[in-house]
């Protein structure tokens, strides 16, 4: 692998991380409150989806590069922005956006693992390339 390819790889991964941080800071992920006091899922069928989305994002945030505390604070604020949304179509859009964030986080983590493995196996080759130039 040439140095230019390696640099391009690191630039792309850095851009993905910045894009994800920007998306999380300005995205609106829903919080749905039940209309009844009992808190049953019959009041709002999307409530369980929203709760599961929050749990999944919280779980994925444990490995976030800036730390789990940073991620959980941003996640909570993103969900609280739309706690009063009641339109099911709007809630569905917000849930879809949250699922997109999950896919982006998974891609970020896979990329990080790939980078670590690449570094382990190609470290000698990279050091010889740097000594040549």
UniProtKB/TrEMBL annotation:
InterPro entries: Complex1_LYR_dom, Complex1_LYR_ETFRF1_LYRM5, ETFRF1. Coiled coil: none annotated. GO terms for biological process: negative regulation of oxidative phosphorylation; respiratory electron transport chain. GO terms for cellular component: mitochondrion. The keyword Membrane applies. It comes from the Eukaryota. Keywords: Membrane, Transmembrane, Transmembrane helix. Residues 49-102 form the Complex 1 LYR protein domain. The chain crosses the membrane at residues 6-24. It holds the Pfam family Complex1_LYR. Belongs to the complex I LYR family. PANTHER family: ELECTRON TRANSFER FLAVOPROTEIN REGULATORY FACTOR 1, GROWTH HORMONE-INDUCIBLE SOLUBLE PROTEIN-RELATED. This is Electron transfer flavoprotein regulatory factor 1. It comes from Hucho hucho (huchen). The lineage of its organism: Eukaryota, Metazoa, Chordata, Craniata, Vertebrata.
């Amino acid at each position: 692998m040439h140095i230019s390819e390696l640099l391009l790889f690191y630039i792309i991964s850095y851009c993905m991380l910045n894009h994800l941080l920007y998306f999380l800071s300005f995205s609106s992920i829903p919080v749905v409150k039940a209309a009844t006091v009992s808190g049953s899922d019959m009041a709002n069928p999307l409530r369980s989806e929203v709760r599961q989305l929050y749990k999944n994002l919280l779980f994925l945030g444990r490995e976030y590069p800036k730390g789990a505390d940073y991620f959980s604070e941003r996640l909570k604020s993103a969900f609280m922005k739309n706690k009063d949304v009641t339109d099911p179509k709007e809630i569905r859009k917000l849930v879809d956006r949250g699922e997109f964030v999950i896919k982006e986080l998974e891609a970020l983590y896979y990329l990080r693992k790939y980078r670590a493995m690449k570094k382990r196996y190609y470290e000698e080759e990279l050091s010889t390339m740097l000594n040549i130039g």
